[in-house]
Specification:
Structural class of chain A: alpha+beta
CATH superfamily of the largest domain in chain A: OmpA-like domain
Order of helices and strands of chain B: HHHHH
Radius of gyration of chain A: 66 Å
Strand content of chain A: 5-15%
Number of strands of chain A: 5
CATH architecture of one domain in chain B: Up-down Bundle
Helix content of chain B: over 70%
Strand content of chain B: under 5%
Strand order of the largest sheet of chain A: 1-2-5-3-4
Largest sheet of chain B: none
Distance between the termini of chain A: 118 Å
Structural class of chain B: mainly alpha
Oligomer: heterodimer
Shape of chain B: rod-shaped
CATH class of one domain in chain B: Mainly Alpha
Number of strands of chain B: 0
CATH architecture of the largest domain in chain A: 2-Layer Sandwich
Radius of gyration of chain B: 28 Å
Order of helices and strands of chain A: HHHHHEEHEHEHEH
Number of helices of chain A: 9
Distance between the termini of chain B: 88 Å
Largest interface: A-B, 30 and 32 residues
Chain lengths: 314, 137
Amino acid sequence: MNIRNMVGAAVAVALGVTGCASAPKQVDELEAARTVVQQVESVPEAGKYAANEVTAAHDALRNAEELQRKGKSHKEVAAAAYIARRHADIAAEQIARGQAEQKTSQAEADRQRVVLQAREQEAATARVRAETAQRSAEQAQRSAEQETAAARVQAEQNAQLAEQNAAKASANAAALAEQLRDLQAKQTDRGLVLTLGDVLFDSGQASLKPGAMGTLDRLAAFLKQTPDRSVTIEGHTDSMGADSYNQTLSENRANSVKAALVAKGIDAQRVIAVGKGETTPVASNDEAGGRQQNRRVEIIVSNPPSTPPVALGR
Amino acid sequence: MNTFRILPAIFLCTAALAGCASYQHQPEVTAQMARTEATLQQARQGGAQVEALPQLQSARDKYAQAQQSMDKNSKEGDREAIQLAKQAELDAQFAAAKAQTSRTEKAASEVQQGVEALRSEANRNAAGSAAVTADKQ
């Protein structure tokens, strides 16, 4: 119920009351005005929105009461009361207007708050979207990084494996070199030449001595590691005895070595046995020491297929 | 308006002027009448005809009565005129205030409705955004 409705109701009540208590000299308009003025004065916001009119109403009411006290005519008192009443009415309107303006500015504030909240909401939604996008991007990056890491691990493993292989190859090469040193190997234009002294055979014999087996085992092991190289076995003798005898003896001895190597698992196709007799001495046959050097078996391991001397034909 | 109606009017005015030429109105009366007229003018311009017609009509009636009282060209007439014109002024002020209040209240409720509409719109959007957000997650 707003101020104006209350004023109307108050007037109705006041008139009803005064109608019953009809004292002499009672002026209904004055009673009504008094009620309305008091009503308006009691509104808390009266001073804020209608200070002048409320004061005017108050003063006019006092004036009307003064006239009544002085015993002025009913008409005069009623006219003065009317002034007070109208000032109070105007005050009530002004209060109502002030309240409406208050409502408007409140609503404006509400509107701004709603707009602000809506913007914040929008911003929050946008933020969530951005965060979601960011998360997917991060996830994608993480997967990519994981893949990269896996690839790196794989590469590292491969590298490690290659390194191990290289190390193994290197170790093999080292082992080979060791064995070759053992066998008195010599790198020549014909290939790798291993010279086995007269330790393999008894004098005049073509069958291998039991003590020769260790040397031949190592030779066979070496040849197994170099399966792509062909092997030539040459038998040599000193100049003692007939040439034909020495020739046959050297052939028999070369064949014995070949047979022993084949028996140890070397492919016979790779191995050629040749008897050279006394044709290619490495020392003088005039001395016992020189003759001992000339009595020998040479094993020539061809150079690897990729090395220059062999690769010339390509 | 024909000549037969103008002539008596002129006659009456002349007679009145002749009769009252000697009477000088109290300055308070003319001042109050001017104030009331100005206030009535303001009330009309403020839209009181639409928003507070009964109060405006009452003000007009009392102003007309005040003019009649003035025409009596007497002290008693002036006293009555002042009283009536004062009441008319207040009635006009009341009418103007009522019109203004009525418009202000209308504006307030329109703004409030606007805010309500905006609020429900914003809530709907917020719900939509929340749904989008929920979808994304």
